[in-house]
Amino acid sequence: MTAIQQIGRIIQERRDHMRITQKQLADMADIGINTLYKIETGQANPTFESLQRITDILGLEITLQVKKIKDLDATS
Amino acid sequence: MTAIQQIGRIIQERRDHMRITQKQLADMADIGINTLYKIETGQANPTFESLQRITDILGLEITLQVKKIKDLDATS
DNA sequence: TGTAAAAACACACTATAATGTGATTTTGAA
DNA sequence: TTCAAAATCACATTATAGTGTGTTTTTACA
After folding, report:
1. Per the CB < 8 Å rule, is B46 touching A45?
2. What is the pTM of this model?
3. Of A23, A60, A73, B28, which has the fewest Cβ atoms less than 10 A away?
4. Cα distances (Å, whole numbers) of residue A61 to A6, A10, A11, B12
């Protein structure tokens, strides 16, 4: 599972939770439905702006943070 | 200050802190120096992959999180 | 202060993200 | 079960991110 695929899933889950369709979210974010579909399904390498427009609508924000140390014994 | 500009500044600060040049970081991340320059100076709308390659080298990670409520009285 | 490395910038070209259209498949509700 | 909406997918086109080259400006150090 790549990072892009994870982000796609988060977006899809968040949209489902808001009970809106891909078309509705795409229109609200002012991006093509095809673009949103590809991002949700992990097939895209979206631009920052596309990602930001979507996350803005969904009440999410994109942040940069210092990477946590990987714990080899972590269960998840 | 846009989000893209903020990210550029974070990348630049992090790189300076690591004491490496744009050229060195660009080579390590396997992206063009021009691309890195534009991202650092807030002139780019980078793809997720470009951003990720850079942040990987810098020990940063891109995350999506629920937006915090804006406090109108916040000092910063 | 010279001057060499680094950064900033312009510009043209290439690769690819974004889009629109239309078809197919899946989903869920009557 | 229909049947319509939603999602998935293919494909061609358009817009633009990424790149390379060369030039100018800035930075920092001898």
Report:
1. no
2. 0.92
3. A73
4. 15, 12, 11, 21
Dmax (CA) of chain B: 44
From CA B17, how far away is CA B11, in angstroms rounded? Answer: 10
Cβ–Cβ below 8 Å for B48 and A10: no
Q: What is the pLDDT of residue A30?
A: 98
Average pLDDT over residues A2-11: 97
Q: Over the stretch A9-30, which tens digit does the pLDDT of each residue have?
A: 999 999 999 999 999 999 999 9
Closest alpha carbon to C1' of C5, residue: B21
Q: Is A61 on the interface with B (CB under 8 A)?
A: yes
Among A5-19, A56-70, B7-21, name the one with the lowest average pLDDT. Answer: A56-70
Strands B60-66 and A60-66: antiparallel
Mean pLDDT score across all residues of chain B = 93
The C-alpha atoms of residue A20 and residue B5 are separated, in whole angstroms, by: 31
Say yes or no for a CB contact (<8 Å) between A3 and B62.
Answer: yes
Distance A30 CA to C25 C1' (A): 26
Q: Which of B25, B27, B46, B49 is nearest to B35 (CA)?
A: B46
B71 touches chain A (CB under 8 A): no
